[in-house]
Specification:
Blueprint: H1 3-7, E1 9-19, E2 29-35, E3 55-58, H2 59-67, E4 73-77, H3 87-96, E5 100-105, E6 119-123, E7 148-153, H4 156-168, E8 176-181, H5 188-198, E9 203-204, H6 208-213
Parallel strand pairs: 2-4, 4-5, 5-6, 6-7, 7-8, 8-9
Antiparallel strand pairs: 1-2, 1-3
């Protein structure tokens, strides 16, 4: 690792080992590296504790911590991890270390410069999030078939909006598309029924970690 990369500093909210709860990698043992900070304030956010605080760690220190779990899959998440400059270097070094790396990002920040080995799981914010105007549509051109687009939906109006975006922008031709309900706002069976009724080419998902452990931090 180059010296400058080794010294790059990040503000880390937490690092923990669990099962991946979302995306097509759901169920896989994964090490989560959660970076502190986020420029968005989604109404249904479930990781507000990551907006501030955390510990300063170098890229080298993060790699050492991750290696202790002897786990192939690593998910870089937040907050919004791309809000920290060192995130790009961290993901590159994780890939170089042999990990299968995924990134959970809001889609509000530029995806250019991300190592092509990283699987980008990019949100498109629906209206009920309060942040739909932050969607950076130029990011769609940065996606590959290895990436995924995620819609987190809180209402039928959100679903109708997501369906229109899916169809008008032909998102399923870019990569896999995921629809997920906001817990406590949209009934999961109702969303599943709409997807089946409209024959949408998307993957329905629940947050597995919440099914297993509820709203427990570090799970």
């Amino acid at each position: 690792m180059p010296a400058d990369a080794k010294e790059a500093m990040l503000k880390i909210s937490e690092i923990f080992h669990s099962l991946q709860g979302e995306s097509s990698r759901v169920g896989l043992p994964t090490v989560f590296v959660r970076l502190t900070g986020c420029p968005l304030r989604c109404t249904w956010c479930d990781t507000e504790y990551a907006f501030s605080g955390g510990s300063n760690m170098s890229v080298a220190e993060v790699l050492t911590h991750v290696a202790q779990y002897a786990c192939h899959a690593v998910c870089v998440t937040g907050g919004e991890p791309l809000a920290q400059r060192g995130c790009l270097e961290l993901m590159k070094e994780l890939c170089d270390a042999g990990h299968s790396v995924s990134l959970e990002t809001s889609g509000a920040l530029d995806l250019a410069g991300i190592d092509r080995r990283v699987a980008k799981i990019m949100d498109l914010k629906a209206p009920a999030s309060g942040e739909s105007e932050k969607n950076r549509w130029e990011n769609l051109a940065q996606l590959t078939p290895n990436d995924e687009i995620k819609f987190v939906l809180a209402s039928e109006a959100d679903y109708d909006w997501a369906k229109s975006v899916l169809q008008e922008r032909k998102l399923d031709a870019l990569c896999q598309v995921l629809f997920s309900p906001v817990v406590g706002h949209l009934d999961a069976a109702q969303l599943a029924g709409w997807i089946l009724r409209d024959r949408l080419p998307v993957r329905f998902q629940l947050q597995l970690h919440k099914v297993l452990w509820g709203a427990v931090r570090g799970k």
